[in-house]
Amino acid sequence: MEDISRELEREIARAKPSPHKTNRQKRILIVDDFGELSSGGYLKVLVYLFLAVSLVGIMGTAGFYTLFAKAQRENLELTDRLAVLEKKADRLTNDKEILMARLVMSGKKPDLDRPEVVQVPPAKEKQPGIMPKQSVEKKSQEKQAAEKEGAKTPAHPVAVTQPEPPVPPVSMPDPPVEPKAEVSVVKPVVSVEKFSVIRGKTSEELVVKFNIRNISKESKEISGRIFAVLKPENGEESGWVVSPGGIMKNGMPGPYRKGQYFSISRFKPVKFTIKNQASPDSFTTAAIYIFGDQENLLFENTIQINGAK
User: Does the residue 44 lie in any domain?
Assistant: First the structure.
């Protein structure tokens, strides 16, 4: 008799499904409005492409910014050199005009285009044994005069000196009058507006605020350093407060690198915070000094503080 139960067990063991292996790979699925699924693998490619393009763009931006900053610095240096050369050209032009005026007033005709060529006549060759006619006549006259004098005083010959011919007076021309050189007035390029001194957030701080404006006719950027000097009513230099953190030397604040840097095209607000326990009313005047990139003084003015008299 066959064992049916054992055969059934074998059939069930054969028909038993194998365990399902889950796929752990991440996928992007897109579900539409009707519930249908579609693969979104191409979105991953687009994301990677966007990241690569963004990285290349950031690196290119950094490189171009470096080149732009370098070109801007070179442009500023060339602008400063051009300004210096223009000043030199103006000074040389002024000197040339003064020299031309001197030549005209002295009566000489200036000819600067072509140099004056002085022709020197060739020297005459002396022939041996032949003396000039004038020298022969002069020697014969001297000999006759010496003989006459010798006949009068034969024992003691006296040397005869001919009187020198009178020198005609030479009229010297009047010295030329030098024209007065025009004094070049340096036009201001910046101005200060809305100046005020107030108490800061604490009782140990003073805040100096004002605006600087580019008033030059040339539309170019101006940069440099700024100093503010607060002065008490008694005017003693020991009580002056120089900001930011400088000292007074020969009537000017310094050193130059201590000043607050600024760069404006048209307008810019400026603010100084000074560590000082004195009240704003203890200072009556303030001097503003603005220097350019070449440490040249662009602006200097004394301002009454907060309507002080």
Answer: yes
